[in-house]
Amino acid sequence: MTSWDPIALEKSVQDSPYDNDAHNRLISCLRGRLQDNQPEVYEELEKARLLKLKFFVLSQSEINNWIEDIKRIEDHENQTKKMLDFYRIVISDYPVVRFWKPYLELQVHSKCSDDMIKQSFTDALLHTVHDYKDSDQIWHIVLEYFEKVEPFESALKLHLKRLSYPHRTLQQSFEEFSAFISRNDAPNYEKHVVTGNKLYSKSCKSQRYYDIHEIRLAKLNNPQLWIEYIGQVGKYSSDGGREVTTLFERAVAASITDNASSTSPWISLWLSFIYLIYDPKTNFTAIESILSKFVRVYPYSSKSYAEYIRNCPLFENGNQKFLVARDRFKKVDVMHSDNYDDWKILALSVLSYEISEARSGGEDEDNLDIVDILYEDATEFVEFATNANNDAFHTIEKLTISIFEELGDLENARIVVGKILQKFSDQSEVWLYSCEFEKRHGADPHTILKILESAVDNAVNLDWPERIIQEWLVAQQIYTGLDEYKASLLKANTAITLVNVKRLHNAKRRRDQDDEEEEIEQMKEVVKNEEDKMEEEEAHSKRQKLDIQTPDDNLEEKQDKTKNVETIGSHRNREKFTIRVSNLPQEITEKTLIEFFKECGQPKEIKIIQESDRPPQATVEFSNQQEVFAAITRDMKKIGENEVRVTQAETATVWVTNFPPGMTHEEIKEYFSGAGQIVGARFPSLKFNQNRRFCYIEYTGSEIAKQAVSKFNGQELNESGKVYHLVVKISRPEVKQDRRINAADEGREIFIQNLDFKKVSSNVLEELFAKFGEIEKVSLPAGKGNGQLNNGYGFVTFKSNVSANNAIQADGSKVEGRPIKVSIAQSVKQRGITTTNKNINTISILNLDDTVNSEQIKKFASKVGPVKSVDLHPGIGALVEYENVTDSGRASMVLSGEVFEGNIVEIGTTDDLKRKVVGAKANTKEKPKLMVPASVARRRKRVL
Questions:
Q1: Cα separation of 863 and 870, whole Å?
Q2: b/e per residue 271-295 (b: at least 16 CB within 10 A)
Q3: 405-411 long-range contacts, Cβ below 8 Å, gap at least 24?
Q4: pTM of the model
Q5: How many domains does the chain have?
Q6: Which pLDDT band, with edges at 50, 70 and 90, does 595 fall under?
Q7: CATH code (residue 849)
């Protein structure tokens, strides 16, 4: 029993209604007082729960607790009434068979009125009749009731209606229909059965389409599988969207044990369903209730608020509801708690809504208020966006500038331009945007030249100095005289010289670093080879000694091996420094586990595994072995009422490679779940090596990992007629499984031909190509004697493939008197995907995870039409060239907003990707403050 003061806790809830923990403390306190069997305490508890339901949905443990508390009520009549009220409440959020069934049974057994029961039957069938898996449970209750109290014709109609819907027990339903006819109208048996058979046959044809998805879901409750299921059913939906709504509600109910974090994978399910019902063809009218529940389920996710606010104009009293949502997301501080890219979507929705309302209003007080709020949010959002520094497009800042321009407030617009120019002074596009802004507002040539000259003065720090210098020289040629233009040429030449010096210095530093890293890798390989040799010799020695060995020998052997392994490096070692915690309470959270292990060290990562038939488990990763040993001492300690087990989680992870390139992350996880429960999967970044194709699959125990190796190693998988043999091994983190491929595979290398054998050295090539981007190395095969410096050709490797593509401009230029040929170097092992040129057949796909490869993108984009080629920039985006121009046009409509490998993709032009690629990190400088309207300033003073 808790000693908390319920009055103080109730005040805490009133002061902070969006604080989930405050609600939980009050409810927990009141539950403790229920032991006194005081009816008034139950009423207080129910009031507290209903208050929380305004802001949050019930979790599975909360549902269980509520039922348990109702069963404590001694008055049977009152208990029944409270239970009916409870199910009515739960069904409003989770209208699924799991809760409809006990609700209907309770109504029938407690002899509620016929009108109430029949209305509940109607509502229950409306929500569950399309539940392929469990709808038969509702039909049984309804038919049993009607066959007892209603005429034959009414029950017959219900039997026929049941046969018209595909469901798992369709065969059994037809047999029950046949038996019903035999009992009640045998003379007309054949006529009724013919009618029923037509409906049954039609439903049978659809069953196999449902069975495919249901079988997959029975193996793995995964949001992506639900999304695919809903999307497939949505294509053929004929009941006003009821089929997809029923599936969606089933999926939501299947995820109610989720911890509702802003990074939950189940958010993608909500977004997929919401985008589906945006289609006018679905005729969906309950959009507000769905979006309200989205916020209550995920109150810390920017995405839930963004969708809600975007639709506020459609709601009754939409402006008031917008203000309530705005108040909530500010008080829970999603700006700082959620990731920037998601918050950006919310910020755009808020500013777009506010400027739209400001446009539509007049001079009334409400409209002036929304303008004040717009200025307040624009000020706050711009400050955060520039500090967050995660958006190469500067979307928030540019939208704010456009809003101020529309409001005629050029002073504040210019302040924002100055802010991003000062903070991101190393980005060429920002300088050009500043020029465009001033041109829009009538700036004279002198102002434009001054901005560009300031950029040229900063050329050594720019991401694309050649672009700025070229723009400045063009402007000088247009707006100034010959003498000024000659002076600008000299200044430009000096700037380029300084840029090239810096590039050469950086190239040398990178070469030195690469040499050092290569030396470390060679050392690791030597250590690994020595370990393998030592293990082999020890095993041979043991066999010769007939496995006779003392415990002390074994201990020394382990110590020697540990010492060798630990000298390999201090990189992250998930397998070695992870512990497993089992028998956890159902309501366990990351915060509780951090508190539980606070004396052991700060966990690097926590994963909670919810299983339907057993208590939750968790894996906790620490930084070193000492923290792991400390954590293991927490074994048999209690969290709540549960005595938890803490064990080391070594050898529970397998390393997998050589799966088909087009196999998606979800397909890989689903395939390997065939060995047992998966905790998670890790895929490598492809930023520096697009040919990497391996992953780590983490299981709930070492035995399952061993089973996975036994089951999957060597298995054959087919893709596009090619056979791939899986390689599956227990992960050994001390062994580097992947090697970096050569730069040609990444498109970062150029091939230069027709070089003068005796005059061109590597220094000549480095000086020539440094202006196109940072050089990683120059390779010049030695000549064959007679004073030859080269063999007529060479290679230059850049840091990025953008620089390599820029370097093609040198094709045909003369080096030491001879015209050279320059092209992108081809790898020895062709990738099979060519670099896509900018043309009308090409689109860019942005916001891709850096673990996605070209084949997966090709498979994704092929939903629109045949894909000719893919040019991937990992972690940034990809250029996709279609075979048909009509497909590239449709791609924007079909693919934009789609969820692909956990990200919502954006479709753009080739220029959009180019701007993203050349974006760079910004430096930090003092920023001017936005001017805030006096009314907002006064309001802030009143708050203070």
A1: 14
A2: bbbbebbeeeebebeebbebbbbbb
A3: 405/440, 406/355, 407/358, 407/371, 410/441, 411/931
A4: 0.59
A5: 4
A6: confident
A7: 3.30.70.330
